[in-house]
Amino acid sequence: MNKRSQVTFWALVGVYIIVVCVYAIPVARELLMGAAFLLGSGIILLLLGIALIYLTSKQKPTRLLKRFLLLTGASAVGIPVGAVLHNLVYGVFIYTHCL
């Protein structure tokens, strides 16, 4: 694993830990929770996940490491994408229910 992949992976882990801590610790939740934090952390997770997938596909790590890094990147990308799709489907169903 090259240096860029390591930095990207550990940045992704760090952002995820910060997000979990904000949700889990009531004091942090009251200080940081808001639309800006949710949007910012979602964008950061999305970009770091895409970067990890790209960097992993360009290098030749061992088979197990490559699978692990691709799965880690895909799960990081899936969090904000899933949130957006959930809200879109929810909005469509609410809108069609009101018609």
Folded structure, characterized:
- By secondary structure, this protein is mainly alpha-helical.
- It has helices at about 5-25, 25-30, 35-60, 65-99.
- Helix 1 crosses helix 2, helix 1 runs antiparallel to helix 3 (about 35-60) and helix 3 packs antiparallel against helix 4 (about 65-99).
- The termini are far apart.
- About 15% of the residues are buried.
- The model has no long low-confidence stretch (mean pLDDT about 90).
What's the quick description here?
With 99 residues, the chain is mainly α.
Keywords:
99 residues, mainly alpha, single chain
Strand content: under 5%
Q: Please describe the biggest sheet, giving its number of strands, its sense, and whether it closes into a barrel.
A: none
Mean pLDDT: 92
N-to-C CA distance: 54 Å
Helix/strand class: mainly alpha
Annotation field: number of helices:
4
Helix share of residues?
over 70%
Run of helices and strands: HHHH
Low-confidence stretches: none
Total number of strands? 0
Outline: flat
Rg, alpha carbons: 17 Å
Give the topology:
Layout: H1 3-24, H2 26-32, H3 35-58, H4 63-98
Helix pairs in contact: 1-2, 1-3, 3-4
